[in-house]
Amino acid sequence: MVILRSKAPLRISFAGGGTDVSPYPEEKGGAVLNCTIDRFAYATLEVTPNGGGSTSVESLDYNVTVNYQKPSDLLYNGELDIVKAALKVFRPPVSNGKGNDTLRLFLHSDAPAGTGLGGSSTMCVALVGAFQRYLREPWTSYEVAELAYRIEREELGLKGGRQDQYAAAFGGFNFMEFTGSRTVVNPLKINPDVQNELAYRLLLCYTGLGHYSNDIIVQQTRNYTERREETVEALDATKRLAIDMKNELLRGNIDEMGRLLDEGWRFKKQFTDGISNPRIDTLYARAREAGALGGKLLGAGGGGFILLFCDFARKAKVAKAVQDAGGRVSSFALEPNGLQTWSVRSGA
Fold first, then answer.
1. For labelling alongside 47, which of 3, 6, 157, 212 has CA 20 to 30 A away?
2. Residues that are catalytic
């Protein structure tokens, strides 16, 4: 038996989210600033050569174990659909000498889908990494990200952008530019002192609400394609903000991050209805009253995590305020590495 593992980091997005969702980048070009954190999606692939060709999948997050014996088992029905889509793309045919291998997949994530940390796309990148190791493909980080994007957006038909796949594949601080023909990832060399100070002043708070990003993104895209003025202007402003925030970060102007996060959150709420709600508004207002300089909801909207930027002397007060309002503070650290894969000796 061969045991292969992969892990890909989740991300926090500072600015530009939404401008990576088609057709905006094809028409105007998108820009996103994000970084990865020490939360991961994990995939383990156990391979038994010439074991009969079946595939089993166990998801620890959803407490689900399924067996796929034939192509007709891979129908999309809301249960592990990303895994099914990946198997359709990567499960090798019998003719290449690997199609008769028996595969067992074990999956789990530090933050499942619906939290705003890019969990679904990160899991997809982890799956691509496991199959890259299995198939011994020399894919670059760009190719890994594009494969994950194709699995989610084209094969499965889920709506969304590109930043999550690229963040998980590359890792670290990145300024990403999106056009119709290509994506360019610009890794940022942030001064270590600035990184430490930024991490010290950020607070991650779970709202207690999950979200289904597909519906929000469908409406956002409709608003844009119909040229709804508020949506178009907000997306344009969000792109400019991503550029401004990248420049301030490179200059080490930490305090400016708080103001720009707050400005970005106001723009984000103009994309479409449903991005915020009374609970989210209350949590954010309590945080601001306690001393948070700014913040934003991560992900498409409707729930998940809020990222807050605090004055260092008031961070504890902000944490208490959001917890008193029903939020849950979650510790994290910045993660410099992207997708990683490795093999394990049988019996280890």
1. 157
2. 164
Dihedral angle over CA of 25, 30, 35, 36, nearest 10:
0
Is it the case that residue 280 has pLDDT exceeding 70?
yes
Q: How many CA atoms lie within 13 A of 116 on its CB side?
A: 28
Is the pLDDT assigned to residue 179 strictly greater than 50?
Answer: yes
Phi (first) and psi of residue 22, to 5 degrees? -60, 145
Strands (E), 84-201: 102-109, 173-178, 183-187
SS3 (DSSP) at 295? strand
Amino acid 265: pLDDT: 97
Enter the tokens of residue 336. 């410099």
| pLDDT on residue 94 | 47
Cα 312 to Cα 315: distance, rounded to the nearest angstrom: 5
pLDDT at 215 over 90: no
Contacts of 4 (CB under 8 A, 6+ apart): 44, 45, 46, 47, 130, 133, 134, 341, 342, 343, 344
Structure tokens at 307: 């990222």
pLDDT above 70 (res 212)? no
Mean pLDDT of the chain: 93
pLDDT at residue 347 tops 70: no
Report angle CA 117, 127, 171 to the nearest 5 degrees: 45
Our CA angle for 71, 75, 76, nearest 5°, is: 145
Q: List, in order, residues 6 or more apart from 139 with CB less than 8 Å away.
A: 128, 132, 147
The structural domains of the chain, ordered by start, are 2-189 (3.30.230.10), 192-330 (3.30.70.890)
Nearest C-alpha neighbor of 13 from the set 174, 139, 122, 169: 174
Residue (of 154, 233, 181, 141) closest to 29 by Cα position:
181
Average pLDDT over residues 27-36: 98
Q: Are 179 and 50 spatial neighbours (Cβ–Cβ below 8 Å)?
A: no
Three-class DSSP category at 101: coil
